[in-house]
Write a structure and sequence with these properties.
This protein is mostly helical. The chain has helices spanning about 10-20, 35-45, 75-85, 90-95, 100-110, 115-135, 145, 155-165.
Length: about 160
């Protein structure tokens, strides 16, 4: 783990915690439904934030009623998208296991698959950061596949994964 920051964004903290716990991020997991991460999403939307000095943030789904984004108020969705748009993908990628950090992002994009406006907001914030990571870490592998991606989807993250391997 590196790239220490004094203040950590809630999504960055969730990703680091999930990576430490080896939390499941399988989209259609029939065992856990990736509920640790999805519950963390709801906690972020409700305004919860881990302490910057400690990543002991209880995200176990038994502690919080299962609430998917379709159950969120407009204010919760706006808060969630705002927090995630301000997350440093570089920080997440440096502090989480590869490709897990892409999986966490994929869960978010899948959760908002039918919410085009919010996927545009996330794509506007995340795609330039992902492109910069590719150019920095794998300049020899930069190709037109990432240039052809305008709006991120959970599926398009597999392109980034294959380039960054």
């Amino acid at each position: 783990m590196n790239d220490k920051k004094d203040i950590i964004n809630p999504f960055e903290a969730l990703c680091v915690l999930a990576s430490k716990r080896h939390s499941c991020w399988t989209l259609y997991c029939t065992t856990c439904g990736a509920m640790d991460i999805r519950t963390g999403f709801t906690m972020i939307a409700k305004g919860y934030h881990p302490q910057p000095s400690s990543l002991d943030w209880d995200i176990k789904h038994s502690k919080l009623k299962r609430a998917m984004s379709q159950d969120w108020s407009d204010e919760m969705t706006e808060k969630f998208i705002s927090e995630l748009s301000n997350a440093s993908i570089e920080f997440i990628s440096n502090n989480c296991t590869f490709p897990d950090w892409l999986g966490y992002m994929g869960l978010v994009l899948h959760q908002f698959h039918f919410d085009f406006n919010n996927r545009i907001k996330l794509s506007s914030a995340w795609k330039p950061q992902l492109d910069a990571i590719v150019k920095k870490r794998s300049p020899q592998n930069v190709d037109t596949r990432i240039e052809d991606i305008n709006i991120l989807t959970w599926d398009s993250l597999s392109v980034y994964e294959s380039i960054l391997k």
